């Protein structure tokens, strides 16, 4: 029962933080450490709860996604171009992750790295929000190939725990010329191939580590991540239409300072 409760807490942490610019991986590392979660390999558990979170996005955007895929198959138009731009943005982090993912996990997956990355990312958000950045894309169909590549390069920095995949891609989109809602939606679309590929790759490496006793906690974490992510995605899209990201910048700085104070 204790293990299932831990899984539920970590599932909620994943669902709440995956699509906010606060770093889900960083929060999971810290939360797992505080909960003393060592009953199963952390990477294996993280795979399942990430899948729960990303399926929430697929479900929430199922209508426009289905329309985009259908139109892309039928004709060579804006929808096919959009899928191409998402795949272009996916490539840089996928390539670097394959080449250096094990080294990054071995040397950087610790609370100290998370704390430092949270603070640095918070400062970057506050700096970006001090200026009014002109945008040329106010809807996802208007995103240019150059802007998609810029977002993809920004996503590479999210391989460092604590940086935040959502934060890096959204801020990268804003700096590249997207307005906030468009950058946020593009970040959500990019999360689908990115997290699915990362999850499947990690799952294939971790299959031997799974046991029948893991089924209940994995299911509990998956379900809670799905539900909490769905709630957060809907709220966050509404939030970015009316507000900037400064509150997340301040949160990251405070959280990073607390983490460094505790681990230090």
Keywords:
single chain; 264 residues; mainly alpha; 11 helices; 77% helix
Structural account:
The chain has helices at residues 2-17, 24-35, 42-60, 62-74, 78-108, 111-128, 145-156, 165-176, 180-206, 215-240, 246-263. 77% of the residues lie in helices and 0% in strands. By secondary structure, it is mostly helical. It has eleven helices and no strands. The two termini are 32 Å apart. Helix 1 (2-17) runs parallel beside helix 10 (215-240), helix 5 (78-108) runs parallel beside helix 7 (145-156) and helix 8 (165-176) packs antiparallel against helix 9 (180-206).
List the helices and strands and how they pair.
Blueprint: H1 2-17, H2 24-35, H3 42-60, H4 62-74, H5 78-108, H6 111-128, H7 145-156, H8 165-176, H9 180-206, H10 215-240, H11 246-263
Oligomer: single chain
**How many distinct helices?**
11
Shape: globular
Low-confidence stretches: none
Helix content: over 70%
Mean pLDDT: 91
SSE run: HHHHHHHHHHH
